[in-house]
Amino acid sequence: MSNLWVMETQNLYQMEQNLSIDTLMVAKEELREDEATRNNALVQMRLWLKQNNKIIYSRSDDSFLLRFLRAKKFSLPLAQEALERYLLLRQTFGRQFGFYQFDTTCPRLEELLKLGYIFAVPKRDKNGRRIIITRPGVFNPSKWCNTEMTRMHAITYETLLEDQENQIRGFVHYTDAAGMCLQQLTLFTPREAIRIVKNGEQTIPMRHKEIYGVNVPLSLKFALDFGLSLISEKIRSRVKIFNSIKESHAYIDQSLLPKEYGGEMEMSKMIGKLIFNNTIILQSTFYLFKQMIDLWKQELLEKREQILKSEKMSVNEDMFSEGARQGRVSALTNQSHHHMVGSFRQLTVD
């Protein structure tokens, strides 16, 4: 049986018809993507998948493969390495930290979704990018575990990456750290945090274009400094931390944000109180962004079946080192290069 799983997908001509001229121009200028490059790269990627005995079963539709090619600016070796690492870590390291069972109809995940722990705002910014809002302060570590936290992130990213415009345009991250506490830092050990962050940056095929943080408690500044030390200089240069939400409006279109952050879309009324970290916190700090979240939930449901089908993908774990299975960042470097086909381009990966 072939290790390629070809899902129903639009062909490349239809893809170009659906993407705007501006988006295709961004792909050309920033990713070196044109029709000839794309067609050749897809052929080479499928040939590599067929020849790679490490991979038992993988999606091979255009949209899925283009995630990795675009994230690596069409460098075949880098895209192949990222895809192989992605498949392995979903199956091994990811099992430990929630990178499976991406079903938002699960009652516990639904509750986190309603709280607005992480969601994408419905409109795109002036650069055509989706804005991902994260509110770690609503995540009660006494109620939820670390796998539920990482699963919510994975569901969000997987859903957004099914859209090819997002693959090309990239993402803006907006984190409101109000309400965060020291207890949340105990969800992961330092080693786990390092492996999650570094594997996430190198393996999840997302273009992180802007990263903003607001309301960071002074008591957690050491944790912020530690987190920034884990990411690459390229990504770190795109991070901006603000003392107030108002300060962030100089960099992000506030009309796109929830009303609580200066935007236009209405939120639900304040409801009761939350008991969190042995402290009563007024719900005014934790608005449920009902209108935005309802739209995001609808988007998640539209992609749900596609996302769940991706869990069929698998690799032959015995063909990887123990370090690779554990998620050590250096373990896969150069290991899969003997399987690679096609030419290598010298480039800066974005």
Automatic annotation (TrEMBL):
Identify the GO cellular component terms for this protein: membrane
User: In what residue span(s) does the CRAL-TRIO domain sit?
Assistant: 109-269
GO molecular-function term, one example from the UniProt record:
phosphatidylinositol bisphosphate binding
- InterPro entries attached here? CRAL-TRIO_dom, CRAL-TRIO_dom_sf, CRAL/TRIO_N_dom, CRAL/TRIO_N_dom_sf
Pfam families of this UniProt entry? CRAL_TRIO, CRAL_TRIO_N
Q: Can you name this protein?
A: Alpha-tocopherol transfer protein-like isoform X2
Organism (species): Sipha flava
